[in-house]
Design goal:
Layout lengths: L4 H8 L4 H28 L11 H12 L1
Length: 68
């Protein structure tokens, strides 16, 4: 189904104001959920940072602070 943005806009503007506001709220909620899911997905890319064996950079940084 291919619908142009202008067609959707024309359909929406036929709704009563209350229904448009409800639709806006539903769209915002859907976008929040989508953004949250993207963040959770991105989080999985950093799980190796929680591995103590991969913590060499923090150890080096702490050691360099101790030298000061």
């Amino acid at each position: 189904m291919k619908v142009k943005k202008e067609e959707i806009k024309a359909m929406i503007l036929q709704f009563p104001v209350e229904e448009i506001n409800e639709l806006i709220a539903e769209i915002r909620k859907a976008l929040e959920i989508r953004e949250f899911m993207k963040m959770k997905l991105a989080e999985t890319g950093f799980t190796e940072w929680n591995d103590p064996e991969e913590d060499i950079y923090n150890v080096q940084a702490e050691d360099s602070w101790n030298l000061l």
